[in-house]
Amino acid sequence: MCGIVGCIGHEKSVAFLLEGLEKLEYRGYDSAGIAVHGGDELKVYKARGKLENLRNLLNGNSSSYSLKAGIGHIRWATHGVPNETNAHPHISSENKVSIVHNGIIENYKELKRELSERGVEFKSQTDTEVIAHLIEDFLNQGHEFCDAIRHALKKLDGAYALGVIFKEDPETLYAARKSAPLIVGVGKNRNFIASDAPAILEHTKRVIYLEDNEIAQIKSSSYKILDLEGNILKKKVETLPWEPVSVSKMGYKHFMLKEIHEQPDVIRQTLFDKLRSTDQPLNLKEVKLTRQQLENLDRIQVIACGTSLHAALVGKYLIEEFTGVPVDVEASSEYIYKRAIVSKNSITIGVSQSGETADTLTAIKQAKAKGSHVLVITNRPDSTMAREADSLLPVNAGFEVSVAATKSYSAQLMAFYLLAIFLAEIKNSLPAERIEEYKKELIQLPQKIEMILSNKEKIHECAIKFHNTRNFIYIARGINFPVALEGALKLKEISYINATGYPAGELKHGPIAMLDETIPVLSVLAPGKVYEKVLSNSEESKARNANMIAVTSEENEHLEQVFDFIINIPYTDEVFSPILTTIPLQLLAYYIAEFLGKDIDQPRNLAKSVTVE
Ligand code: F6R
Question: Separation of 354 CA from ligand 1 center, angstroms?
Answer without folding.
Answer: 8
